[in-house]
């Protein structure tokens, strides 16, 4: 566990800087020293309450008056409170920065990962790691800092116990160390349960995500009970692990509670036999109670840390896995103009297979620079795979992909010239404007004229003008737009990129034939190439046609 704690501290240091972490440790050390000083000052305070006129500190040849003793206590308490507040704020800043670095760094590298790797990952598992695992990692970072604080407070309290009664205090510290050694087995058990919890939470998240994704079929088939049973089973498995963790941890805490009371009573009896004064005995009782309470808190933090730290390890392992699958080329280049003398993009005898299945074999296609190419085929014929190849998401096993007559190597530069509209509408919560602008090329901004031009070409400008707020109308989860209007908004979003190639992946499936024909005629205005993937023939369309399946 010590190695894991050091690793978490190293992560926080790498994120926030060694100076801030050292500053935090210094603050916590100061708080621990003030905690010890406050306990020592209890002796003269209790002496004053007993009517003594000459107040002193144990182990030190210092004597002072009642006002001085009370003033010292107030100063120490105020300074400790300020130190605790500053340490809490700084610790929170360090933890949150470290968690964001883990989450956002992983997310950035996921976005940059090879498409074949990313598309093969289960989405619910990725969401699980970026949410639940990250929150558990945050808890682990909090616990390791609490362990650090607890160890310092425990050391300060033990020092006070030794100062009050060297022999008795020394025995108390030794007893705490022995209890901690015996209880260390519980932290190993918590670590094992933490790893199991990570797996169970992943399975529960997958079942919940899949059930929500199947809501339409579930309702249509009245099959909610089946999904409820499945999700309930996974929830029960999570509950089983949580109960086991609480049962074992609570048993140790309960046993320590009994030991703590017996130890305090024993220390008081020994102190009386050793001739300690009543103020010293009272202070010793407080110190002993605080010592054993600190030990219990330290053990509880250790168990929580051991239970949650597997999430940190899992996130780092997943990040290393993602980094092993980078996209082969992501360097952007200056946008090249489409050539009028050659095909904008051409596939030559392309072959693609995965998982032992051949998706495309010997496929050739030329998309003219300012014309239409249509790919027609039933479901499962390889249309989506062909688009992956055109977009540079999937490398063909054989054959080649040419852009402007040259092999496609600069993926980022090529995608900057492409506008893609998927079959499943992807709109973000926000305004019409935000939905138009979110996929612009880096460094570009959208003008109002460009927005209206794109909406007009997509045949949606009149609809948007009628919305309250027009371009700034909030879509409220797209409830205001029909399915066909949502598709046309997606087309307009692709158009504001000013693409050389507009790819429509079943992007007009929600439109009737007449509206589809009008939108397509508007798109084919000689300013771009259009590659259209559909399962049905287009009425009256001209251009290159590739039939699959």
List keywords for this structure.
five-stranded parallel β-sheet, Rossmann fold, 549 residues
Radius of gyration: 34 Å
Structural class: alpha/beta
The helix/strand order is HHHEEHHHHHHHEEEHEEHEHHHHEHEE
Total number of helices? 17
**Percentage of residues in helical conformation:** 55-70%
CATH topology of the largest domain: ABC transporter transmembrane region fold
Describe the structure.
There is one protein chain. With 549 residues, this protein is an alpha/beta fold. It folds into two domains: 2-323, ABC transporter type 1, transmembrane domain (ABC transporter transmembrane region fold), CATH 1.20.1560; 369-394 and 408-547, P-loop containing nucleotide triphosphate hydrolases (Rossmann fold). It contains 17 helices and eleven strands. The chain has helices at residues 2-16, 18-40, 42-49, 66-111, 115-119, 123-164, 166-213, 215-220, 224-273, 278-323, 383-390, 411-415, 432-437, 448-457, 461-466, 483-495, 513-523, and strands at 55-56, 63-64, 345-354, 357-367, 372-376, 398-403, 406-407, 418-421, 501-505, 529-534, 544-547. It has a five-stranded parallel β-sheet, sandwiched between helices. Strands 4-3-6-7 form a four-stranded antiparallel β-sheet, with helices on one face. A two-stranded antiparallel ribbon has the order 1-2. Strand 9, helix 17 and strand 10 form a beta-alpha-beta unit. Helix 6 (123-164) runs antiparallel to helix 10 (278-323). The longest helix has 50 residues, at 224-273. The radius of gyration is 34 Å and the shape is elongated. It starts with a helix and ends with a strand. Mean pLDDT is 80; it is low at 330-340.
